[in-house]
Amino acid sequence: MPSLNIAIVGGGPAGLTLANLLLASPTSNKINVTVFERDASTSSRVTKGGTLDLHADTGLAALDAAGLRPAFDARARYDPLSSALTIADRHGTVVLNLGDANEANPRPEIDREDLKTVLLDSLPEGTVHWDAHVNSVTPDGSLEFRSGAEEPTVGKYDLVVGAEGAWSKVRAHITESRPVFSGISGFELHIADPETTYPDIAKKVGHGLYYAFGNQQSFAGQRLGNGSIMLYAMARTEGPNDPQELIDSCGGDLGRVQQRLKKRYEDAGWAPEICDAIGAADPATIRGWPLYEYVLPDGHVFAHRPGWTVLGDAAHVMTIFAGEGVNTGMRDALELAKRVREAADGEGDRIMEALDRLVQEYEEEMFERSRRMMTETFLNKEVLFDERAPESAIERLKAQG
Predict the structure, then answer these.
(1) Model-wide pTM > 0.70
(2) CA separation (Å) from 140 to 153, 173, 206, 367?
(3) Using an 8 Å Cβ cutoff, are 376 and 322 in contact?
(4) 287-291, 325-329, 390-394: lowest mean pLDDT where?
């Protein structure tokens, strides 16, 4: 019989990485893992997300520990140009190019959905419970699902891990601290066949990432593994409701939303080719996206609650402007898995005592480590949406060496 029963709420990269690390360990026969995921199936989510670059000491280290590096390598992009970064101003004038076709890419790229496939394919059948959307956690610790069903945790799970994002119901059971609006919101769009639909943006983006800044707005184009391009049109806004208010003002007509969004950029003096790229996207793919973060330095910190913890965005959501979110979450999984495995190696009543102590140790380490990533991300956000951007961003890059 397993020594420990672990429930993971959320089947994103961080939660699935934790499941793999626990089940691939030498002590896996002592650990039972159940993942509750809100999506109905692997293919039910409409919004698939962009591409990720995994770092040696975080995401890649977690995959190595789980024995998943060969499966990852089969899908990842090591092409040096896939990590190329172009920064321009709102007029389309390039101010910085990073990336060398002759240098190896130490941070391989992989689409978010491909990474999830790698993580899902390695789990035993039945590990993930689909269509299990946790709506709340009751005061006595039961998981209450949107379907109306309940899953008692007391006496059934030795540890419940919240990995279901910024608005984690597990986190809400542990602490009242919540993320705050970052001051940045906008829209995500998708061009399925850019080479045909809008070759100008395909050329600008190349194999990597194209970013333009100005007027406290940004435009980004990111190449995915299938050749398509994700677009991100973000700006400083007074509140998080700006994207939804625009959608509502257009009666939910995403085609009208697209044209209004394009006009915002035209009115602010953005280059015609950038405005036209927004107009070239498939309007059905438009998604409003307000960005959230925790107030530094300690907004993400919470008091330990035995039997419960969080990782990934549920622990320390940050904006997208350092590329550290998924990597930090996968490192969380690596650090937590080490400690759960150590506890599972114990005997008798000491197992639970050790588990509680080691989870608290993980939380203290995670708070400090993620604070560094949150600080870096916050500072990037501030210079990227400064009135002097992109000059302010170039100055920060030069200062970092």
Answers:
(1) yes
(2) 9, 10, 53, 26
(3) yes
(4) 390-394
